[in-house]
Design a protein that fits this description.
The complex is a heterodimer. By secondary structure, chain A is mostly helical. Chain A folds into 2 domains: 72 residues, no CATH class; 216 residues, MetI-like fold (Orthogonal Bundle). Helices cover 76% and strands 0% of the residues of chain A. Chain A has 13 helices and no strands. In chain A, α5 packs antiparallel against α10 and α6 packs across α8. The two termini of chain A are 14 Å apart. In chain A, 44% of the residues are buried. The N terminus and C terminus of chain B are likely disordered. Chain B is α+β, with helices and mostly antiparallel strands. Chain B contains 16 helices and 19 strands. In chain B, a hairpin with a 2-residue loop joins β6 and β7. Classes of the chains: A mainly alpha, B alpha+beta. At the A-B interface, α2, α3, α5, α7 and α11 of A face α1, α6 and α13 of B.
Chain lengths: 310, 550
């Protein structure tokens, strides 16, 4: 297991190197100039030239890349052109908020989505199943920002139960987590349902029933565990994508997470901030995928952790 | 400065659903809770300030925040007049080149250090020092030797000297009547003589508000400076919330969680036609021009008749009323009507498509031509650009819209790659010079702000004469003439001067809408009928922790 983890982490190195190169190249192909963003609407060409020189933007690209990659290898993500603050600290300040939101959304999705899936699979084509099908269909289709605004409208403005936006205690977390989690809840519910139905029709379930186990025991002990394998994949992927920034949710709910940080960095062409945060997010994604694989192994005894097979 | 910055990419993605949701949000009212707090909460900023270091203030949220914490030698009032600040008074030499500023006695920084003249010298050196990487040295360039210092060709600024503890003498290269106004810009704020490396995170100034805490992309908290030389603010504390999505700020306002709101343009009608909402509105003409920069060096646009035709082809009044909620007054020049030099008798081009067609025919384009109109990601701008496309099509000009993010659009315009670009200009200081010089003077083509690439020596000369003219009446006359000449040459499609529209909670007293972005510092604002202690529901160390020191 340990060697599996180590190998996977080693394999992540070329992935991250690739991310580094691609981000760097993309930023130079894309139009826009960080210095223009720094100086604002009115400036003079001397200042612009001076800043370009100071920020080493007038050097050749391979040299700029070497300097940047060197910094990264030394563990230095650099300093923002726009704010003058170290990128690592900016990312470290925002990541806990992103983690909080992503975690809450995922928890909600896992608990609600899987429960609903199991319940509806227990009585397929019943009225509850049909209703859930319709609701989850909507849940998957509605864009997250629209769901967010509707949640604000209903729970903050009409009912005054929760604050419309901002961050703070648990009350501030509920609406954004619901908005962000809606799609996952709906998707997981459908996924769990169909996966459960597959499993429930299989031979070993029939055997379990035949040997006299209760319906409940069959559902939870035999069927659910096997049905969860594809569900975990989805959970892992969704969690990874939530952790790498939920820009729209963060924007609608004024949530101070990484997604807004990345978008602001991009819109101001803050090159070190873009590169640093993308690199960080890639690391997060790699780790989440690794953890997902480990969880697989825990759930499904047939899965062997052989790095070469991956 | 630009308000384009106020909108980041994400809110523009939200827009299509905004129209559906906003009326719903608007439908929900009643039961307005009274606030349980002593903190005034502002929701205007759409993105985090760049820094709280004055040397880095190149955008509106930064400049505003800096103006709460710091003072300059001079300042702007809420009505955009110049007033003394840390300089109690100043003398100008007869040749207009030497300014002697007399500092206000007894002023201290938030950490207790007294203000003295050497700090003024240090503050300005800091702004100009390339190592600061602020990028906004130009307001101080008129000082003799400032450019040399900025280029590291001199160890000190020749024209800047502290004569004694309370007197600063500034010598300029040439006379410049607007110089005291440049010193009221946030970038020229006075900072202590030794500042911590993370000064932008832990600022110490002399201003009415001292720094308490700042959670990036969330809020900035300030507390009153009880020792403020101008009289302490009446409020205990001030919170600037960063709310990126306009409809969320509306929701926060309707929930009573914020005290001040920028009314989104698309919602203007709804607010103005609902009685209880209308009562909350406060409006002020902003020193802000919306215009289309016509690149005078490209193709058919080189011909002034073509540029005039573009002006006649567009029904600006309808655009203003339908798309911008009528918030503005039509522009007949670049100088806002409230500033000296504005010619209020000059008439806008007016909507006259027949005249436009005739001018195009006279210029040799009876069948029109094809052209690009660039626009950034702001939603209202995009709608205006679509409307412009329609009006120009009606006179035979085939416009293709090029929508880009603000950064790319601005870069293209500065490089002269745009035929037309829809823009706005928001004044840094209240003077006609801040419109004429950047927008129309040849020396400022490109990065200086003149993205029309308009180059008319007659205009340049008038503006430069005005800069050195001490007499304000004469100066205004020169401004008027320059504006008038340029208006005839039509390097812009003159759209309108924008009016800011704020909503203010009924429990707020003493708020006046500022005419310049850093004119309102909340000194006289109070929250009435608020008795309960601060609930401090939102996290952090509560509303009044002790100030952090660098």
């Amino acid at each position: 297991m340990l060697s599996f983890i180590l190998r996977r982490l080693l394999l992540a190195v070329p992935t991250l190197a690739g991310v580094l190169v691609v981000t760097f190249l993309l930023l130079f192909i894309a139009p826009g100039d960080p210095v223009m963003e720094m100086v604002g609407e009115r400036a003079d060409s001397t200042t612009v030239a001076q800043l370009r020189h100071q920020l080493h933007l007038d050097e050749s690209r391979p040299r700029q890349f070497a300097a940047y990659a060197g910094g990264v290898l030394r563990g230095d993500l650099g300093t923002s052109f726009i704010t003058g603050r170290p990128i690592a600290r900016d990312v470290a300040q925002r990541f806990p908020k992103t983690l909080e939101l992503a975690g809450a959304a995922m928890l909600l999705a896992a608990v609600l989505g899987i429960s609903v899936g199991v319940i509806t699979a227990a009585r397929p084509n019943g009225w509850l199943d049909r209703l859930t099908l319709a609701v989850t269909y909507l849940g998957i289709s509605f864009p997250v920002y629209w769901v967010g605004l509707i949640l604000i409208l209903v729970f903050a403005m009409m009912l005054h139960w929760l604050p419309p936006s901002g961050s703070g205690g648990i009350a501030f977390l509920i609406l954004p987590a619901c908005a962000l989690g809606t799609r996952s809840i709906a998707f997981l519910a459908r996924m769990t349902r169909s996966s459960m139905l597959d499993v429930l029709g299989s031979d070993y379930v029939r055997t379990a029933r035949a040997k006299g186990l209760t319906r409940r025991a069959v559902l939870t002990r035999h069927a659910l565990r096997n049905a969860l394998i594809p569900v975990i994949t989805v959970l892992g992927l969704d969690f990874g994508s939530y952790l790498t920034g939920s820009i729209l949710t963060e924007t609608v709910f004024s949530w101070p997470g990484l997604g807004r940080y990345v978008v602001n960095a991009i819109s101001r062409r803050d090159l070190p901030a873009i590169q640093g945060s993308i690199l960080f997010l890639s690391v997060v994604f790699v780790i989440v995928n690794l953890v997902t694989d480990l969880v697989y192994a825990g759930v499904d005894p047939r899965v062997e952790l052989v790095a070469a097979a991956k | 400065m630009t308000l384009r910055h106020l909108r980041t990419l994400a809110p523009s993605l939200v827009i299509p659903f905004w129209f559906i949701t906003v009326p719903l949000l608007g439908a929900c009212r009643g039961g307005e809770p009274t606030p349980q707090r002593h903190t005034f909460i502002d929701s205007r900023d759409r993105y985090d300030p760049r820094s709280l270091d004055p040397a880095l203030s190149t955008d509106v949220p930064t400049g505003r925040a800096v103006s709460y914490i710091f003072d300059g030698l001079t300042r702007f009032t809420v009505n955009a007049n110049l007033a003394p600040a840390l300089a109690e008074r100043w003398d100008v030499s007869r040749d207009g080149k030497t300014y002697t500023f007399h500092l206000r006695p007894g002023v201290t920084f938030h950490d207790g250090r007294p203000l003295h003249a050497a700090q003024v010298v240090h503050s300005f050196e800091r702004v100009l020092d390339p190592r600061t990487k602020g990028g906004r040295g130009w307001p101080l360039y008129p000082i003799a030797g400032a450019r040399d210092f900025a280029a590291r060709a001199a160890a000190s600024i020749r024209g800047l000297r502290a004569l004694d503890d309370s007197t600063v003498r500034i010598t300029l290269d040439t006379a410049l009547a607007i110089f005291p106004k440049l010193l009221a810009m946030p970038v020229a704020s006075i900072v202590p003589d030794s500042v911590a490396t993370a000064f932008g995170e832990h600022p110490v100034g002399t201003g009415p508000w001292r720094f308490v805490s700042w959670r990036h992309d969330d809020y900035l908290r300030l507390a009153r400076n009880p020792a403020y030389w101008g009289g302490a603010p009446k409020l205990d504390s001030l919170e600037i919330r960063i709310v990126p999505e306009p409809s969320t700020s509306v929701a926060e306002f309707e929930a009573g969680n914020v005290d001040l709101l920028y009314v989104p343009e698309a919602e203007t009608d709804q607010w103005e036609h609902t009685d209880d909402k209308k009562a909350l509105l406060v409006s002020a003409p902003a020193l802000r021009l919306w215009y289309v920069a016509i690149n005078c060096t490209r193709g058919p646009l080189r011909d002034p008749r073509v540029r005039q035709a573009l002006n006649y082809a567009v029904d600006v009044k309808t655009i203003l009323d339908r798309l911008v909620g009528g918030r503005g007054s039509l522009a007949a020049g670049v100088i806002p009507p409230s500033l000296d030099g504005a010619d209020t008798t000059r008439r806008p081009y007016g909507y006259n498509p027949a005249r436009a067609k005739a001018l195009l025919a006279a210029a040799g384009y009876p069948n029109g031509f094809a052209i690009q109109l660039w626009v950034g990601q702001d939603e209202t701008f995009q709608r205006v650009s679509q409307s412009l496309q329609g009006y120009l099509a009606a006179v035979g000009i085939r416009v293709s819209l090029v929508q880009r993010d603000n950064s790319s659009a601005r870069e293209a315009a500065r490089h002269g790659d745009t035929d037309l670009i829809l823009k706005d200009w928001y004044a840094d200081y209240p003077d006609a010079e801040d419109f004429l010089n950047p927008l129309l003077v040849g020396a400022n083509r490109g990065v200086g702000g003149n993205v029309s690439f308009y180059d008319n020596p007659a205009v340049d000369q008038l503006v430069s004469r005005a800069r050195t003219t001490a007499d304000s009446t004469q100066r205004a006359t020169l401004y008027t003439r320059a504006d008038s000449i340029a208006f005839g040459d039509a390097p812009l499609i003159y759209l309108f001067f924008y009016n800011e529209l704020y909503a203010v909670q009924p429990w707020v007293a003493g708020f006046q809408a500022p005419q310049i972005f850093n004119g309102q510092r909340f000194l006289d604002v109070t929250l009435s009928g608020v008795a309960a202690p601060d609930s401090a529901a939102r996290d952090s160390a509560g509303a009044h922790p002790s100030p952090r020191r660098p």
